[in-house]
Write a structure and sequence with these properties.
This protein is α/β, with parallel strands linked by helices and about 375 residues long. A hairpin with a 2-residue loop joins strand 6 (about 170) and strand 7 (about 175). It starts with 12 loop residues before the first helix and ends with a helix. The chain folds into two domains: about 15-250, Type I PLP-dependent aspartate aminotransferase-like (Major domain) (Aspartate Aminotransferase, domain 2, 3-Layer(aba) Sandwich), CATH 3.40.640.10; about 250-370, Aspartate Aminotransferase, domain 1. The chain has helices at about 15-20, 20-35, 40-55, 65-75, 90-100, 120-125, 145-155, 205-215, 240-245, 250-270, 295-305, 335-340, 355-370; strands at about 60, 85, 105-110, 130-135, 160, 170, 175, 180-185, 200-205, 285, 290-295, 345-350. It is globular. The protein is about 40% helix and about 15% strand. The longest helix is centred in the C-terminal third of the chain and has 19 residues, at about 250-270.
Length: about 375
């Protein structure tokens, strides 16, 4: 084409890490010098700091966000023959964790504006064999947990919050992950609070759930080093914990940066036909992702790519249409809202250090591309 464009990546972790590089190097050296690499003092310290940050009684570090969901469900008593209800438009890991317990995922459709699970549909999907529900705090915005807990109490089911995209998100003053029986976080590198590899955390106010997750994450081994049940190898490594301890004090600042970037997008895109994100009343959105809706999404995305603007789709296929879950018996048309919006959703570049000029470039390019 001959035109030169300023490349704008979908996520740029190097800017974040550059700002705290000296602290990261110091934390890395501290762990190497200690020669203690699995669990230990660094993990215990992160657990204490993360639980204090959220206002939860306990936090237990595990190997990934997927493991957090799996072990939290196990600790809540979910097992073979059970149903667990969750949103149909979440990442596959949410449903995978249910299957790891031997349980059956049951899906619910979504709200067309916020993309959060439709709570009426969630309750309607509960069966006599349902033992838990997983509300997904998608894209950095909390589900209405007051209503979720009312549904749970009416139906006698446990609540495991999928807060893997919602570090620091709040609603009605309560942090994502702290309202249900357990909350689960991922520290995948691109998350609002990301490690330099995989990691996860289960938070809870129930000491029995915390104790069970601690047992399960380390091969079912108790304090006397007896293997009291078959567990898993899902230990958070000390190096990741140390690096996360460096990052945690910056999380609110980074989330504020994301909210500022989202506000710039909102203003710049207001005159375009692209549907901008809708923030739920009472929710403190932390914009893990900034998701718009556009017609001819795939063509728009391709043309933005030609201008060196990276985008994403979260998620292109609702879980009931993914091959991995075809045996559940769902068919196209079962979840019409999710099936409709997933043809138009487009995730724009989003990270705290995105500049005003870059937001303007993305917004201008999106406007030009949509009019072509």
């Amino acid at each position: 084409m001959g035109d030169k464009y300023h490349a704008i990546p979908f996520v740029d972790l190097s800017r974040q890490h550059h700002a705290i590089r000296a602290q990261l190097d110091s934390a890395f050296a501290r762990v190497v010098d200690s020669a203690s690499f699995t669990l230990g003092e660094e993990v215990a310290a992160l657990e204490a700091e993360f639980s204090e940050y959220l206002g939860a009684a306990e936090a237990v570090g595990v190997g990934s966000g997927t493991d957090a969901l799996h072990l939290a469900l196990r600790a809540c008593g979910v097992g073979p023959g059970d149903d667990v209800v969750t949103a149909v438009n979440t990442f596959a890991a949410t449903a995978e964790a249910i299957r790891m317990c031997g349980a059956r995922p049951r899906f619910a459709d979504i709200d067309p504006e916020t993309y959060l699970v439709d709570l009426g549909a969630l309750e309607a999907a509960i069966t006599p064999t349902t033992t838990a529900i997983i509300p997904v705090h998608l894209y950095g915005q909390c589900v209405d947990m007051t209503r979720v807990m009312e549904i749970a109490r009416r139906n006698g089911v446990r609540v495991v919050e999928d807060a893997c995209q919602a570090h620091g998100a709040r609603a009605n003053g309560l942090a994502a992950g702290t309202v249900g029986d357990a909350g689960c976080f991922s520290f995948y590198p691109s998350k609002n609070l990301g490690a330099l590899g995989d990691g996860g955390m289960v938070v809870t106010n129930d000491p029995e759930i915390a104790a069970r997750v601690r047992l399960l994450r380390n091969h079912g081994e108790d304090a006397n080093r007896l293997h009291v049940e078959s567990g898993y190898c899902s230990r958070l490594h000390a190096l990741q914990a140390a690096l996360l301890r460096v990052k945690l004090p910056h999380l609110d600042e980074w989330n504020s940066g994301r909210r500022q970037v989202a506000a710039l997008y909102d203003e710049a895109l207001a005159a375009l036909p692209a549907a901008i994100p809708v923030a739920r009343p009472g929710a403190h959105h932390v914009y893990h992702l900034y998701v718009v809706q556009v017609e001819d999404r795939d063509e728009v995305r391709a043309r933005l790519g030609e201008r060196e603007i990276q985008t994403g789709i979260h998620y292109a296929v609702p879980l009931h249409l993914e091959p991995a879950f075809s045996d559940l018996g769902y068919a196209r048309g079962d979840f019409p809202v999710a099936e409709d919006v997933t043809t138009r959703i487009l995730s724009l570049p989003m990270y705290p250090y995105l500049t005003y000029e870059e937001v303007a470039s993305v917004s201008t390019a999106l406007g030009v591309v949509e009019r072509v």
